[in-house]
């Protein structure tokens, strides 16, 4: 990120902000780290309230922020810790529903109203009574927020329908890699990764994301039954961890599916670079990190036509209906047999990725919101 001059005018103390993070979402955590680095570079004082494990994973302290441990809980102790951290803040910015709800509790009852910005990176997923509870939390949060930023138009619309006074589309960049790029020649690294995964002499299909119901991996396994008839048989590799691991593994073994679960990985860029296709079978996605990484890496993407995906990828990916295993299987079979179509998607993907906001543009947009909300009122 390009260094810039201080954001604070001469003679004025720097803007004091608190970023509140639940720590459970990789996309929002990476965004907060990128945003924090940009704000600090512009002379803004930043405190990040997040669990210890989030700071260890994303090193907010390493980019110049103060870190305050606040557990992923809305119990009185956590709320009190958050209230103390926000005591001298000019503005508080919460990311995600649960972090936002804790922040609303922490800021309630104060004599001086502190501007609260809330970013919705995704939609919370639940069924039954828990789904009703999440809707109640959403209403409480958006009515208390000064501004709600949604990472997709669908999330902005949802915030407005839920009661937000001011909801806007957020510029959110795909943060660059935190670890140094390996000096290896990609043409040498690709066969090495494919050999490790067991994809020698066969197509490699990559999916990345937590092993949860809304990710649609049950549909992906249904589609993999069709691919067993191909010669050579493609290998599907799913990188991620979550509560459905045992259930998915039982299906893979019981049905003899050409699918591998490899758990959580920190080398997603290398895995994608080695893949022939990237797969995103989710029932809902906002601003998918996998979709962005695939297009950046020039890997053809097959994704479901849900949430923010169409808005994000345009015509640079093959889109299929959510929950339709036949459509997913057929789209993959067509692409594997059509190298010209794959090359076209690679070129379209690179052009589409070039239209997305940069990290600098993301920081600039957020700072403009902060300026608007903290600007002193003119004297009468």
From TrEMBL:
Presence of keyword Transferase: yes
InterPro entries per UniProt: Glyco_trans_1, Glyco_trans_4-like_N
UniProt domain Glycosyltransferase subfamily 4-like N-terminal: residue ranges: 30-173
Name assigned to this protein: D-inositol 3-phosphate glycosyltransferase
Pfam families from the UniProt entry: Glyco_trans_4_4, Glycos_transf_1
The UniProt record lists the keyword Glycosyltransferase: yes
CDD domains referenced in this protein's UniProt entry, alphabetically: GT4_PimA-like
Domain Glycosyl transferase family: 201-349
Keywords of this entry: Glycosyltransferase, Transferase
